[in-house]
Amino acid sequence: MGCGKVFWVGVSAAIITFFIIIPVAVHLNRTNDANKRSFTLDDYFNSTIKWKSYKLRWISDNAYLHKREGSVFLYNVETREESLYLSNLTFAKVDATDYMLSGDQKYVSLESNYTKQWRHSYTASYSIYSLDSSTFVTPSGIPECVQYFSWAPTGNAYAYISDFNIYMKAHVNSDPVQVTFNGKKNEILNGVPDWVYEEEVFASNEAMWWSTTSKFLAFLELNDRQVHSVEFTFYGSEQYPVTRAVPYPKAGSALPRARLLVVEAADPSRHREVEPPSSITTGDYFLSSVTWVTDERIAVQWLTRQQNHVHVQIYDFNGTSWREKQKFVQTSRTGWVGHYSPLPLFFAEDNISFYKVMSDTLGYKHIHHISDGVAEPITSGQWEVIYITKLTKDAIYYISNEHNEPGVRNVYRAGIGRSSAAPRRCLTCDVEKDRCQYSLAYMSYNASYYRMDCYGPGLPLFTLRDNRGAGEELMVLEDNAEIKNILDQFHMPAVRRGTLRIAGFDLRYQMMLPPNFKTSQKYPLLIDVYGGPCSQKVDYGFRLNWGTYLSSTEGIIVASFDGRGSGYQGDQIMHSIYKRLGTYEVEDQMTAVRHFIDLGFIDKERIAIWGWSYGGYVASMALGAGSGLFKCGVAVAPVAKWEYYDAVYTERYMGKPIDNLDAYQNSTVTSRAKNFKSVDYLLVHGTADDNVHFQQAAEISKALVEEQVDFEAMWYTDKDHGLGGAAIQHVYTHISRFLNKCLVRPQ
Ligand SMILES: *[C@@H]1O[C@H](CO)[C@@H](O)[C@H](O)[C@H]1NC(C)=O
Ligand SMILES: *[C@@H]1O[C@H](CO)[C@@H](O)[C@H](O)[C@H]1NC(C)=O
Ligand SMILES: *[C@@H]1O[C@H](CO)[C@@H](O)[C@H](O)[C@H]1NC(C)=O
Ligand SMILES: *[C@@H]1O[C@H](CO)[C@@H](O)[C@H](O)[C@H]1NC(C)=O
Ligand SMILES: *[C@@H]1O[C@H](CO)[C@@H](O)[C@H](O)[C@H]1NC(C)=O
Ligand SMILES: *[C@@H]1O[C@H](CO)[C@@H](O)[C@H](O)[C@H]1NC(C)=O
Ligand SMILES: *[C@@H]1O[C@H](CO)[C@@H](O)[C@H](O)[C@H]1NC(C)=O
Q1: CB of 671 closer than 6 A to ligand 7?
Q2: Closest ligand 5 atom to the C-alpha of 296?
Q3: Which H or E element spans position 442?
Q4: Pick from 105, 124, 597, 598: CA 20 to 30 A from residue 348's CA?
């Protein structure tokens, strides 16, 4: 390959500019050190040694629901009164694990027999329960196996999907009306996404949208007939294993064809198409998002296959059809639109202008107000808005990393309209400053109240706050006091953060330093990598993970580095790897390792790299680079070759294979097989991985065998990309043993 040479380019320009050390346990009481022990692998698996969050659902501007001991309680923030809303006995009657509230809040649907499909999708059964009469509505008339259930936003109408067809009920007691009839597995899907729309376009199992007061229902119809299927064996336990087929467009191949249809709740037999603009239909395209503005106005983001051009089209209903009212087009000249996909639209009170996070002229993601097709920035600076969390009539609330570092998060409020002159305000910056530097918010309907979610760097803290005054804390919801005491008995790693200058950019790293760390000693190093476009591994979140064990018990320094391609620092850094995956995001990891060695406390004979998914790809590419830096490494469910991955993700960054053949061909792990002779490699993959197919590990294995490279491997039968169930403990135990042999106790 000779890639090793390429990787040295730009290395000499890199210098360490600063670093800081923050003990993870800053908020923990100091107890006698002698009584402390290290955090072990068993501790990592121990379910009582986990920090807690606090789940709630706002159901108005001042009330929320919270589930405790299996029952749902209603909490009124103004009166501070709590009442039983839905008893755990009711859940038990139908074996339910989740619930959803009807638009009029008079009924709940209870969900049981949750059966996972892909990352977001699942099937389940639903029972309808009346809160007024405390009885079940029987018979519900809902089939046993439902793919998606959705209450209308008003009244108690609902829609559900069974066997890829949509059914609607105008009222809980009325008869269901079948809305579509052409649904067929792996061919025509109504109201539910197919594999690639679920994973890469919507990142959800929802493809059906009620209008604001339930007059219309819009839904996606997907045609997968031209989409090539991937087939894999599911071993199960029968005499003959079964083969599963899933339509899955790989890079360069035929995409699902999308249509957006709207039916009127009063007459669901008439389907009206919301047609994509002709500028979009000249090539392949995606339906990226659907936003109802009013009952008779709908906004759709249509995205070209290349994903550098999005057409926001606003349509009005004229009594018979949906016609263009206004449009806004957005194009990226340096890469793709959005972090992954175009970000959502938030419509203003005028029902026609909207707010959206998009790149400004300097390539930083900021809030823009789009009016008459023209975008005006609301925020600006060399930092990014991560997302908008709430829009009210006089303010916009958003999360950004404006203060200090790319890996920090805070909640901000900016006045809009007549209030736009009011100064921008940070709601979370001054709350528990040491403990909270990664804070998000979940706002009530009109943002009068919010739950502040502080995820670190100290122990996570969840509080209820009043947003009408100075952000007064009303209640501590979860302060993790219990785990604080438990953690106090451990010797914990300290976190060191710093910056490396590479190719003119200041890029961040963080390290977990073993307890009693001394710069005069030499430590083994594990690089924990993800490295995918728009990823961020260096942040101010609290960490209590597998790395905590490796550092605390095995004395390994676990480090992560956000190189070129990483997110939330402007498009210049993120789009560096456009059309060239497998280059800078891999090289920068190795450059970082060289700098870590220069710090003086790394044993350069004991360095490893590991990653999962994209991280497994980067780890494999780095191990196969022939750099001589790594003694060993682990790849879990890695990509081997971009042509094997899905078209939506891959082409966003690489274009089609036919248009970028060289970059596809020289970014494979398999072509680096020979270089694996100089490293110890552990390759892990689930055989039922619907996302990164087992094919990818199989091809790496084949290439290594061809080159007579010895390596270790573990497959997980019938497990998917997340290696759930028993496999999760198994895989971490297995990798721990492998790494200990390589880094800690070499023979
Ligand atoms: C889990 O941790 C708790 C708290 O330290 C401890 O009491 C318990 O024995 C542990 N359980 C196991 C199975 O190790
Ligand atoms: C149901 O709720 C009651 C009262 O809150 C509680 O005592 C009981 O433990 C709960 N049952 C379950 C199975 O959680
Ligand atoms: C639960 O759902 C699965 C998948 O749809 C189905 O095979 C099974 O029969 C259901 N079980 C019950 C108890 O309804
Ligand atoms: C609505 O628009 C369609 C398509 O342009 C047109 O044929 C129809 O006449 C319009 N209907 C009304 C009531 O304006
Ligand atoms: C926006 O739409 C809502 C709901 O249809 C309506 O009540 C309101 O008057 C509209 N506002 C404007 C400025 O048109
Ligand atoms: C919440 O905001 C909506 C839309 O601006 C408004 O119609 C409603 O009256 C507000 N409710 C409260 C409680 O402020
Ligand atoms: C592929 O080749 C190009 C041109 O020689 C080079 O710039 C790039 O770094 C190579 N990519 C990889 C992954 O090695």
Answers
A1: no
A2: 5
A3: strand 439-443
A4: 105
What beta strand segments (E) does 193-348 contain? 208-210, 216-223, 229-234, 242-247, 257-264, 267-274, 285-294, 297-304, 309-317, 322-331, 346-347
> What confidence score (pLDDT) does residue 403 get?
85
Condensed to tens digits (0 to 9), the pLDDT of residues 601-627 reads: 999 999 999 999 999 999 999 999 999
CB 546 within 8 A of CB 554: no
Digit-coded pLDDT (tens) for 667-678: 999 999 999 999
CB 201 within 8 A of CB 286: yes
pLDDT of residue 12: 32
Q: Please, which residues have CB within 8 angstroms of residue 256's CB and are 6 or more apart in sequence?
A: 194, 196, 197, 222, 223, 224, 227, 247, 249
Please enumerate in sequence order all residues whose Cβ is within 8 A of that of 623, keeping only pairs 6 or more positions apart, or say none.
Answer: 609, 630, 633, 635, 675, 676, 679, 681
Which candidate, 297, 392, 385, places its Cα nearest to that of 343? 385
Q: Which atom of ligand 1 is nearest to the CA of 46?
A: 1
Token match 């248009």: residue?
A: 659
pLDDT of residue 6: 28
On the question of pLDDT at 275 being above 50, the answer is yes
Nearest CA to ligand 4 atom 14: 318
Output the pTM of the full model. 0.95
For residue 35, what pLDDT is reported? 85
Pocket test for ligand 5, best of 154, 293, 297, 351 (most atoms within 8 A of CB): 351
Interatomic CA distance for residues 394 and 411, integer angstroms:
16
Amino acid at 539: D
Residue nearest to atom 5 of ligand 3 (CA): 145
The tens digit of pLDDT for each residue in 522-560 reads 999 999 999 999 999 999 999 999 999 999 999 999 999
Report the pLDDT averaged over residues 632-656.
98
> Largest Cα–Cα distance in the chain?
79
| Residue 576 three-state SS | helix
Cα 394 from Cα 447, distance rounded (Å)? 11
User: What is the SS3 assignment for 198?
Assistant: helix
Give the tens place of pLDDT for each residue, 479-516.
999 999 999 999 999 999 999 999 999 999 999 999 99
Answer whether 42 contacts ligand 1 (Cβ < 6 A).
yes
247: preceding bond cis by omega (within 30 degrees): no
| Nearest of 9, 30, 11 to residue 489 by alpha carbon | 30
> For residue 378, what are its two tokens?
């609301």
Per residue, the 3-state secondary structure of 517-552, as one string, reads: CCCCCCEEEEEEECCCCCCCCCCCCCCCCHHHHHHH
Predicted local confidence at residue 4, as pLDDT: 28
Residue among 71, 83, 97 to mutate when testing ligand 2 (max atoms within 8 A of CB): 71
Query: Based on the number of CB atoms within 10 Å of its own CB, is 423 exposed (0-12), middle (13-18) or buried (19 or more)?
Result: exposed
Mean pLDDT, residues 156-160:
98
Index of the ligand 4 atom closest to the CA of residue 319: 13
Residue 32 binned pLDDT confidence (cut-offs 50, 70, 90): low
Q: How far apart are CA 434 and CA 458, in angstroms?
A: 7
476, β-bridge pairs: 463
Residue 17 has pLDDT above 60, yes or no: no
706 CB-contact burial (10 Å; exposed 0-12 / middle 13-18 / buried 19+): exposed
Tally DSSP H helices, then E strands, for the chain.
Answer: 14, 46
What mean pLDDT do residues 129-145 have? Answer: 95
Q: Whose CA is nearest to atom 2 of ligand 6?
A: 446
